[in-house]
Design goal:
The complex is a heterodimer of chains A (105) and B (121). Chain A has no helices and eleven strands. Chain A is an all-beta fold. Chain B is globular, with a radius of gyration of 14 Å. Classes of the chains: A mainly beta (105), B mainly beta (121).
């Protein structure tokens, strides 16, 4: 099974900061990777699909790049409502998630 | 507007079977897509459990496969999860989800609100 390693596991930043989260896969995924946001006490929400495509309704301050084994999620200007945990997810033989990154403001 | 709603007991005794149902509204599960379950233990990350297609085809997380059954009922537009022989490690918030295929991958684009299931001794 593919292992997804996210780093950092947590970070603290200020409103307006640029934030980058990394997800590294144990084997190549092409561009088949997604990102989710989970606000405290809420269900996860799909932000990004196919490595770099913004899901409908997601603010444009979110962007993502990557292919193969290395992927990044960037928040260009951190907002208070972005305080959440972020997870990467792949589907090789079956769906699997990274361990998550908690973003605190 | 697709909505998913989990239902089932919030407490299950150890060694018994956890059973949850997900009601789908705003969309007919007869129309396609895979439908599945994801869980999250308190303070932990996300773990996919299993999914089912309208044909009845299922696939499961290998770590849970021996204990899991996902089924669907197209006449009532809901799908279900049974997890047998539960232990304290199965205490989690259980989410029902829709699996969607985008250009290169599969993702969970619709989520229920989740339901907390606690395994008691």
């Amino acid at each position: 099974a593919v292992q997804l390693t996210q780093f950092p596991s947590s970070l603290s930043a200020s409103v307006g900061d640029r934030v980058t989260i990394t997800c590294r896969a144990s084997q190549g995924l092409g561009t088949a990777l997604g990102w989710y946001q989970q606000r405290p006490g809420k269900s996860p929400q799909l932000l990004i699909f196919d490595a770099s495509n913004l899901q409908s309704g997601i603010p444009s301050r979110f962007s993502a790049t990557g292919s193969g084994t290395d992927f990044t999620l960037t928040i260009s200007s951190l907002q208070p409502e972005d305080s959440a945990s972020y997870y990467c997810q792949e589907f090789n033989t079956y769906p699997a998630f990274g361990g998550g990154t908690r973003v605190e403001i | 507007h697709v909505q998913l709603q989990e239902s089932g007991p919030g407490l299950v005794k150890a060694s018994e079977t956890l059973s949850l149902t997900c009601s789908v509204s705003g969309f007919s599960i007869n129309s396609g897509y895979y439908w599945g379950w994801v869980r999250q233990a308190p303070g932990k990350g996300l773990e996919w459990i299993g999914s089912i297609y309208l044909t009845g085809f299922t696939y499961y997380n290998p770590a849970l496969e021996s204990r899991v059954t996902v089924s669907l009922d197209t006449s009532t537009n809901h799908f279900s999860l049974d997890l047998k022989s539960v232990t304290a490690a199965d205490t989690a918030v259980y989410y029902c989800v829709r699996d969607t295929n985008y250009r290169t991958g599969w993702y969970f684009d619709v989520w229920g609100r989740g339901t907390l299931v606690t395994v008691t001794s």
